[in-house]
Predict the 3D structure of the following.
Amino acid sequence: MANILMYTSAVCPYCINAERLLTSKGVKEINKIRIDLQPERRDEMMQKTGRRTVPQIYIDDRHIGGFDDLRALDLAGGLDPLLA
């Protein structure tokens, strides 16, 4: 199973939807970096991704993007192979 890293916050509906989608695909563990609890990690996220919003999702070392990107990848049939 792939290693999932997600920059997230507690009050983000897109983060919840991303987690729900990944869980529905059989993902058991998501390594979460809570930028609401660790604000210094937001700078790290912005440096790595060039984006300010959460979630920012990585599958292994590949930056997927946010929930909309994750959903589009799934609809295009590209998510399952990455998770395998």
